[in-house]
Amino acid sequence: MKMEDSKPHNIEEKLRTIEKRLIDILKNFGYLKGRSSKISEIAAYLYVHQEVTQKILRKLTGYSLGTISTALRALEKRGHARRYRDPDTREYHYELNGTLLQITSRSVPDVQRYFSQMREFFGGIEAKISRPYIPEKRGYENIRQFLNEMNDIIPAYEHALQEIRTMTLNIKQEAR
Fold first, then answer.
1. pLDDT in tens, 43-60
2. How far apart are CA 151 and CA 63, in angstroms?
3. Staple 44 to which of 26, 76, 83, 162, CB 3.0 to 4.6 Å?
4. What is the spatial distance between Cα 169 and Cα 63, in angstroms, rounded to a whole number?
C-alpha cells in the first residue's frame, strides 16, 4: 500500500519535471531567435498552459509581477498574446495568439538542429508517459496535447525548412 501511495506523487513530480523541460526547450528556441529569455519563457508557459494569469506566471517563473507585466505587454504588442478580463474575478487572463513558430524561430540550420534535438527529447517523453497509470495523473492531458501537436508540427516544419534550404542553395548556384 505504501508503494502505491508514493507513485502518484512521484508521477506528478515527473510530469512537472517534463513540463519544466518542455518550457526550457521552448525558451531556448525563442532565445535562438533573439528574444529575451524572460519573454521566451513566458511565451512558452502561455503555449503549454494555453491560458494564464500574471499570478500564475509569477508562481511558475518566480519573476516579479512588473517583469511579467512588461513581458506580456511586449508579447501583446507583437501580436503574440491577447488578454481578456474575467468578469467574475476582474483578473486578466492571457492566451497565446499565433503559432509557436511565429513566436520562436531563427536561421534554417539552427532551427533544423533544434528540431532534431526536440524530436529526440520528445521521443523520450513519449516512452515515459506511455505507462498505463500515467494518463490518470494531473498534468498528463496538457503534456499529451503538447506532444501530439509537436508530432504533427515538427515534421511539417522540417520539410518546409528543407525546401527553403534547397531553394536558397539553388539561388546561390544560379547567381554564380
1. 888 888 888 999 999 999
2. 31
3. 26
4. 43
